């Protein structure tokens, strides 16, 4: 009997994964090249970064880890806040809600497209760092892990904000930006956490970007505030919190 | 086993009771119509039966699976065709079909075979590689129905399937639904087109203000209001005054003009025939046709939901 149960469970899991992947593929086909996604996911972090980096005496190559961090933040969280309100408006979201899949798969599928999009976009500063500025990477495995986890964390954050039951993209984006914009100032991207006032350092602890950026810094420089293991654990905890909260909100708002 | 079994379902939104203790069942292979005026509780019922919304209390099962606690198993056997043609405009017809099949866990070979078969049936196969945003309303509706059938459902929820469609799409959809019924698929149909429900359904339920006010076969429902009979008459000449004059005939309760015909509601059809013949003689009119009609399903609907007619339009009393 237990083997039959396991087979049933495996089959269920395989169905859930393929449904989540189908949702991600659908989003990739439809939304990746929408102008507002390109602006929000690619140009916004780039110009935001340039606005703060130009004029500093830091060598350009040293700015690459920070640029990767905010690119991951903005691009990963830019797909679902656009796609889900649009799908609510044209009633295709109802199709997903009534499909024989769990809400976890729906949330994961939606987040997957943002995750893959941001990994692709973040390869741009990574490549520019390697080719143009010859920026050395000291720990490639940590860089890969940090990019993957940070991208998924912020993609789930985007899906979480998109749970707000509106058909208006602007409403979700406004709410999301009230969280995303402060994050880049309190997470050590532009101002090192060590030079922040004590209150700032305490706030930095509740920002997922702090840990993502810390890992990426470690991969490039070998220096970090926390050990990479603590950073990895912290980002995983944030992912779980976002995932569970998103699941709860999608359920609650559809009742 | 019943396809749908609903027991004492209540749904409240704050202080508003959208569904007030409704109970009904739909047998396997049955075509069941669910009628009601706007805001009566049709959409709330469908949202609960498809597991999108949760009831405040009561239960609903789909082929024995509780929709609230065994949601995924219950949904696996259903196809849902919503009122809005909720297709992805930026995907091709084929990609829409594949996506729908993947959501319902249909294997690759099977979904390709099924998609080809359905797109051919709905006369969309030649446009399968075109993005849907170029499709007409009727084509999008046909694609929505094809997507709802890609998992070969045992139960199909059809919400306003032919509303506002062109004749070609209308005919195709009705033919496909008729075939599905022959194949033993259970159909749960909501429609504003009462004649459609009359023709297609084995039984209909009429819901009003969250209560089910009647549930029976269309012909049985009509028998409950035999007092609403009518005479349909057509003259060789029509004039603007005729409707008013006919409505004033002694045994006519209400008169209505539809096209070149007048429909005269009465409790005594034979008396009206005499009156109409006399009226025609007096006004030098020739009667082209005269027919006695029993109550229609629409009459039953109006009678039970407390709606009233003004000319051709039906208005809610409240």
From TrEMBL, chain A:
One cellular component term from this protein's GO annotations in UniProt: ATP-binding cassette (ABC) transporter complex
Chief location bin: membrane
Single GO MF annotation: ABC-type transporter activity
Keywords of this entry: Membrane, Transmembrane, Transmembrane helix
InterPro entries, A to Z: ABC2_TM, ABC2_TM_bact-type, ABC_2_transport, Nod_factor_ABC_transporter
Domain of life: Archaea
Transmembrane segments: 35-55, 61-82, 103-132, 138-162, 183-205, 225-250
Keyword NAD in annotation: no
UniProt key word Transport: no
Pfam families named in the record: ABC2_membrane
Occurrences of domain ABC transmembrane type-2 (ranges): 26-253
PANTHER family xref list: NODULATION PROTEIN J
Name of the protein described by the UniProt record: ABC transporter
From TrEMBL, chain B:
Domain ABC transporter: 4-234
GO molecular function: ATP binding; ATP hydrolysis activity
Cellular compartment(s): Cell membrane
Classification via InterPro entries: AAA+_ATPase, ABC_transporter-like_ATP-bd, ABC_transporter-like_CS, DrrA, DrrA1/2-like_C, P-loop_NTPase
Entry membrane topology: Peripheral membrane protein
This protein's record includes keyword Transport: yes
One GO term (biological process): daunorubicin transport
SMART domains recorded: AAA
Principal subcellular localisation of the protein: membrane
Superkingdom of source: Archaea
Cellular component terms per the entry's GO annotation: plasma membrane
Record's keyword terms, sorted: ATP-binding, Nucleotide-binding, Transport
Entry similarity comment: Belongs to the ABC transporter superfamily. Drug exporter-1 (DrugE1) (TC 3.A.1.105) family.
Name of protein: ATP-binding protein
Species of provenance: Methanosarcina spelaei
């Amino acid at each position: 009997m237990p083997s039959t149960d396991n087979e049933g469970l495996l089959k269920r899991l395989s169905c859930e994964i393929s449904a989540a992947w189908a949702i991600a593929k659908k989003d990739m086909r439809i939304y990746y090249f929408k102008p507002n996604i390109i602006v929000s996911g690619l140009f916004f972090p780039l110009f935001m970064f340039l606005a703060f980096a130009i004029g500093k005496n830091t060598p350009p190559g040293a700015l690459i880890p920070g640029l990767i961090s905010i690119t991951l933040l903005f691009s990963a969280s830019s797909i679902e806040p656009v796609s889900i309100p649009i799908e609510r408006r044209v009633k295709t979201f109802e199709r997903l809600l009534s499909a024989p899949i769990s809400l976890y798969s729906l949330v994961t599928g939606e987040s997957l497209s943002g995750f893959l999009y941001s990994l692709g976009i973040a390869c741009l500063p990574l490549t520019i760092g390697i080719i143009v500025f010859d920026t050395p990477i000291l720990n490639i495995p940590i860089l890969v892990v940090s990019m993957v986890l940070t991208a998924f964390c912020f993609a789930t954050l985007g899906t979480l904000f998109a749970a707000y039951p509106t058909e208006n993209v602007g409403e979700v984006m406004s709410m999301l930006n009230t969280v995303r914009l402060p994050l880049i100032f309190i997470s050590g991207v532009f101002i090192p956490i060590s030079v922040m006032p004590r209150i700032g350092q305490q706030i930095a602890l509740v920002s997922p970007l702090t840990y993502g950026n810390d890992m990426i810094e470690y991969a490039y420089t070998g220096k970090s505030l926390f050990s990479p293991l603590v950073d990895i654990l912290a980002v995983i905890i944030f992912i779980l919190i976002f995932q569970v909260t998103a699941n709860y909100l999608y359920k609650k708002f559809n009742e | 086993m019943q396809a749908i079994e609903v027991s004492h379902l209540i749904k409240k939104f704050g202080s508003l009771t959208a569904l007030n203790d409704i109970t009904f069942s739909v047998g396997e292979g049955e075509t069941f119509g669910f009628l009601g005026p706007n805001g009566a509780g049709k959409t709330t019922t469908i949202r609960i039966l498809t597991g999108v919304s949760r009831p405040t209390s009561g239960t609903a099962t789909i082929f024995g699976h509780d929709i609230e606690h065994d949601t995924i198993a219950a949904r696996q056997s259903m196809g849902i065709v919503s009122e809005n043609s909720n297709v992805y405009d930026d995907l091709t017809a084929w990609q829409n079909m594949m996506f729908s099949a993947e959501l319902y866990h249909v294997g690759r070979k099977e979904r390709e075979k099924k998609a080809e078969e359905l797109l051919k049936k709905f006369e969309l196969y030649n446009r399968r590689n075109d993005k849907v945003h170029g499709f007409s309303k009727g084509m999008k509706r046909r694609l929505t129905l094809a997507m709802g059938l890609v998992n070969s459902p045992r139960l199909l929820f059809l919400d306003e399937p032919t509303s506002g469609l062109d004749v070609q799409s209308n005919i195709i959809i009705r033919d496909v639904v008729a075939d599905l019924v022959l194949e033993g698929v259970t159909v749960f149909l909501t429609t504003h087109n009462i004649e459609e429900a009359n023709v297609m359904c084995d039984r209909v339920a009429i819901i009003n203000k969250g209560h089910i006010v009647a549930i029976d076969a269309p012909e049985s429902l009509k028998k409950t209001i035999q007092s609403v009979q009518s005479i349909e008459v057509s003259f060789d000449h029509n004039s603007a005054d005729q409707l008013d004059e006919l409505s004033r005939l002694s045994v006519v309760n209400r008169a209505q003009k539809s096209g070149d015909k007048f429909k005269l509601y009465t409790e005594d059809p034979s008396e009206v025939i005499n009156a109409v013949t006399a009226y025609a003689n007096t006004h030098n009119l020739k009667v082209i046709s005269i027919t006695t009609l029993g109550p229609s399903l629409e009459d039953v609907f109006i009678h039970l939901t407390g709606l009233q007619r003004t000319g051709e339009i039906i208005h809610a009393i409240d």
